[in-house]
Write a structure and sequence with these properties.
With 162 residues, the protein is mainly beta. The protein is built from one helix and ten strands. The strands form two sheets. It has an eight-stranded mixed beta barrel with strand order 3-4-5-6-9-10-8-7. It has a two-stranded antiparallel sheet with strand order 1-2.
């Protein structure tokens, strides 16, 4: 079941206060998760797209970050992969530094804090180059392409649950 979500959220992190409006997004019912990158001033909804169709994924990327179907759920053992559009959401993704925090605000109200452990640029969509397969840690990998949808350059940021 799909529904339209409109909500305003306020999150206080250290010295920063994030106030953001997420409006007119189609999401799977029951999801209101947020991805927060305080050092980059990013606060965006996470959409769980129940499709591997590129058109469905690209449409969702214009308004939110997208959880890669088949990857781990953020906070669970494995590698949760979140994609974002280079054109709007992740345009400065590689400005994040190792050691900085990435947060996932779960729909149950719990906030997960991840620490960036690696970042990389590749000319391939192949996450195997990051050696994360069968990893037993709780990882979050943020990805984007430049330009969007082409895959000419793939940016990866890997963070581990603290």
């Amino acid at each position: 079941m799909k529904k339209r979500l409109y909500f305003i959220s306020v999150l206080v992190l250290g010295l920063g206060v994030f106030i953001f409006f997420s409006g007119n997004k189609t999401q799977s019912a029951g999801t209101s998760e947020m991805l927060l990158i305080p050092s980059l001033n990013v606060a965006v909804s996470i959409i769980y797209v129940d499709s591997m169709n590129n058109d469905d994924i690209e449409n969702a990327l214009y308004s939110a970050a997208v959880h890669q179907k088949g990857s781990a759920i953020p906070g669970n053992v494995g590698n949760a992969q979140i994609m974002g559009s280079y054109n709007n959401i992740f345009h400065n993704l590689l400005n994040i530094n190792v050691g900085e925090s990435v947060l996932v605000q779960r729909d149950n109200g719990k906030t997960l804090v991840f620490e960036v452990i690696d970042k990389n640029i590749s000319s391939s969509h192949d996450l195997n180059s990051l050696n994360l397969k069968n990893d037993k840690r709780r990882l979050l990998t943020l990805t984007t392409t430049d330009p969007i949808g082409t895959g000419n350059l793939q940016y990866f940021v890997v963070a581990e649950l603290k």
